[in-house]
């Protein structure tokens, strides 16, 4: 009798463990895994094709190198509109969506959290017509259906930097796409942002979707005139300049923390021509604020001006990677 009881107990515990491992992760749980993220920019998001902006096709070894470097999450920007029929039912090119799925699977199979988005979709940003709304909804309907059985480590991001879409139209679009995704993915985490270039102020002005599984997102390239400037030795990093960054993170935190909505910064970065010392100081300042406010983050790496990882040479540029993937005790 005792043996039978122990056997039943083992089975019960095994079932509990399986249930726990397959349980839907909440946005609050996921955000802890999204602090050490990186973008694969200017590749699948290049509107005229993966290599049209001078980058090589994404390789599976990128994810091995990201893993070895200590990253835990990868954002895969994708531009879909040139790979979609212009007449209903607006079918996505099968070869293209299969290629996107291949890249997503490379990341998921290595244990990464992955963000998949719609990036340079001018069709909806520049012309919010009924036809283009229907076409954009069809794109997301197909993405959601294709990836619905993937790990819940895959997150969907509705639209990157919707400039010049109006705030009213963006609010309408966010509501529409939440409904589209929820038809096939009732609990997958969805990432939303504000209008214009998705900065902090635009996020605070946007309607908050009525949904349980979501993360708010903004982009931060402050101070833009400095970090994008080509003169590598222009100084930055006074207490006042650092406080400017902290103030951004403070007011976003104070807005969303009482609402129990996690926040991420899925783009931030500094161009590689800056002196190594200044570039390191910039990333340290951002990472310190990201960690202290409990935000997720994805450094922008486009393989060019904002390069962090030398994709062909499989080398890291300076110590930026070490700063982003460091533990809080190392800061």
Pattern of helices and strands: HHEHEHEHHEHEHEHHEHEEEH
What summary fits the major beta sheet? 8 strands, parallel, barrel
Give unreliable regions as ranges.
1-22
Number of extended strands:
10
The largest sheet has its strands arranged as 1-2-3-4-5-6-7-8
**Can you say what the CATH homologous superfamily is?**
Glycosidases
* N→C terminal distance: 57 Å
Give me the CATH architecture, please: Alpha-Beta Barrel
The helicity comes to: 40-55%
The total count of helices amounts to 12
User: How many structurally independent domains?
Assistant: 1
C-alpha-based Rg, rounded: 21 Å
Structural write-up:
With about 325 residues, this protein is α/β, with parallel strands linked by helices. The protein has one domain: TIM Barrel (Alpha-Beta Barrel). It is built from twelve helices and ten strands. The protein has helices at about 1-20, 25-30, 60-70, 95-110, 120-125, 130-145, 165-185, 200-205, 225, 240-255, 275-295, 320-325; strands at about 35-40, 75, 115, 155, 190, 215-220, 265-270, 295-300, 310, 315. Helix 6 (about 130-145) runs parallel beside helix 7 (about 165-185) and helix 10 (about 240-255) runs parallel beside helix 11 (about 275-295). The longest helix is centred in the first third of the chain and has 20 residues, at about 1-20. The relative contact order is 0.13. Mean pLDDT is about 95; it is low at about 1-20.
